[in-house]
Amino acid sequence: xxxxLTGIWEVxxxxxxxxxxxxxxxxxxxxxxxxxxxxxxxxxAATASAKATATESPxxxxxxxxxxxxxxxxxxxxxxxxxxxxxxxxxxxxxxxPGVKVVHTRAxxxxxxxxxxxxxxxxxxLFDVVESNLFEVQFIIEQGYTQKYKTTTFDDYPEAxxxxxxxxxxxxxxxxxxxxxxxxxxxxxxxxxxxxLCNPALKGKIAVEQGDVVVYSxxxxxxxxxxxxxxxxxxxxxxxxLRSGHTEMANLLAAGEFAVTLSSNGHxxxxxxxxxxxxxxxxxxxxxxxxxxxxxANKPPHANAGKLLMEWLTSNDGQLAIQATGRVPANPKVPPxxxxxxxxxxxxxxxxxxxxxxxxDADFWRQTLGIK
Length: 372
Prior knowledge:
alpha/beta; D-Maltodextrin-Binding Protein, domain 2; nine-stranded mixed β-sheet; 38% helix; globular
């Protein structure tokens, strides 16, 4: 979920730091004032690995990490997972590993980026693991604020869910789907694809999360540049309501504030539908699938606890904990709680490669939708 940024400095810091990284990966905003400074390329450390060896089994790896983590006592994770879901997931880790407490700092991907940049430039090393949208996590990786680490289950994950060199691994994904309030959809209107949102009957009845540039970037690859641009233009012509925060937008959709959304988190739509709300979603082909990646900090204050948490989140137990929230686990061997989120088409994974044209995509997105 992307929540609204607060304050002119924060908005501009995040927007410019992301833009700078995408354009050159050489400029970084300062912690106060917004002046760009030159930064040397970070030193790439060798990949750490917890993989079992001929003398150490996966269980022994976890036992070793746990013994060391108990002495640390705490693991600090900066994550965009909402607090409601975090309250379901992290207590299961604490039950399995008594004596290791999870301190969860929740913020949107953009805010996490801004926070980490600020802390690191001030010489503060406060987090062990960062977990959020791949675009933001990749930016943090490129600044040298993380280290490579391969969990014991690393090779069990599809290539799209992990950095080949161990830079990141995913624990969950978001399916980005057009949401529908079936009781508010005008008579005779169907929404099966993104193009259906161009129907003039939907004027004033669409909501768009204003931070969803990645959805447009994905549509360019799926539909082609010209068609993706035309779709966004005709959606803009339908006078969409611009919103901040996917969870809030989905809740307002369920309340009848609007009839459809350009893109909602599928798991939230499924939760609302299961609660009896008049909610459905478009069965797009393919399914835009936003990888939520995690990485180990370059100077973690609780290194062993950080590794242990990553191990658990990517283990079968951790994936089942994520499944129980309704979110889609990253490991395809663990099916989602709501099969209707994934059983109608193949996924289109949002990859690091889509960041290449982020500047251009973001400018077109903002200009077309009138986002200041």
